Amino acid sequence: MAQHVHELPQEEHLSPEAKRISNILKNCIRQVETAVILPALLQLNSASGIADEELSRALQKHQILEDKLKMLESLEQDSDRHQEGNTRNFRKRAQLERAFKDSVKDVLRVYRNRPDVIDGLMAKLDIKVGETENMLIGNLKKFHGHVVERMLLSVEEERLQEKEEEEAISVARELEDIVSQEEKMTADLKGLNKDIAEEDLKIKDLQSKVEALKTKDKNRKLLHEKQCQAIIKESKEKQARVQKEMDEMNMKLKEMWTEHRKEESVLQKRNERVRDEIKLVIEHFDNKMEELQAKLELTQTIYEKEQEEVRRMEPYFSALEKEYNEILEKRRLAEEKRKEEMRVLELKTKAAIFAQAWWRGYSTRKALKNKKNKNKGGKRKKAK
Q1: What is the pTM of this model?
Q2: CA-CA distance, 335 to 245, in Å (whole number)?
Q3: Could you report the per-residue pLDDT of 3-28, keeping only the tens digit for each?
Q4: Which residues are in coiled coils (predicted)?
Q5: What is the helix (H) or strand (E) element at residue 112, kind and residue range?
Q6: φ, ψ at 153 (rounded to 5°)
Q7: Cβ distance 143 to 4 under 8 Å?
Q8: For residue 56, which of 110, 127, 124 has the smallest C-alpha distance?
Q9: CB-count burial class (<10 Å; 0-12, 13-18, 19+) for 310
Q10: What would the pLDDT profile of 69-99 be if each residue is shown by its tens digit?
Q11: Are 79 and 62 within 8 A, CB to CB?
Q12: Separation of alpha carbons 5 and 25, rounded Å
């Protein structure tokens, strides 16, 4: 595979802006090619060295940075240091990564300045790249060629091409729509035929049912006519019975109406008599009420006079009441004094009775004692 991107013949007719775009794409393809063969170049430089000094120095610097970065990664995985050491390693790693990126840029710059050197090494050593990388580079080159072709087209040609593409797409869509519509119509037609066949079967079934219903309806009509005749006959007989009952009821109603008229006349006379009695009672009540009203007015007058007399006598009543209260108080005090004297007298009487009883007991006991002593003295004299 030729790694160098050669200039296409069409690029001579490009405008300056289009050439710049083409150069940018070619530069990107070269950088991808360099990144793909970079491991092989590093291995070659480590084993036998490369004649070009600038390229050799750039590769050697890149190799040293890569080794340092790998060593730092292994140390970070195996070490269990403090947070301060981890922070220092992190800073060192960031510095190495920046230097590593710069070294990659240096290698790419050398390749951009001296593409023939790397192409010669690749042709001499027959360096192979992977299938995926080869496919990526091939697709990038195809994309570059397509972009160049697009940039060679004029504005009108580009519009014409876009229009043709749009028309082709539109025709394709219309064809797809027609095909889909035809398929849909075919499916609908099949479904319609199926529905028609089903409807025919339903119609035949309905016709047979209609015939059966007609026969059944005819039999039902005959039976209905027979039933109607029997019902009409029974209805006429029932109507005659009802008419007879109605005549009897009318006769009873007439008799009851006559009787009620008589009772009504009696009740009217009774009501008139009751009205007269009520009128007399009301007149008597009015007279009685007038008499009572006169008596009430007279009583009210007498009551007012008595009230006036009471108000006039109230001062005397208050003096009498005061005197009466004093008399009651004196009586109460006298009664209390009498009760107290009676209580004292009762106590004295009880004390006297108790003293007398005690004295009588004492006298009796003493007399009995003296008598006993006397009897003992007589017995002694007889013994002598």
Answers
A1: 0.32
A2: 103
A3: 445 555 555 666 677 777 777 777 77
A4: 189-350
A5: helix 83-113
A6: -70, 140
A7: no
A8: 110
A9: exposed
A10: 777 777 766 655 544 445 666 677 777 777 7
A11: no
A12: 10
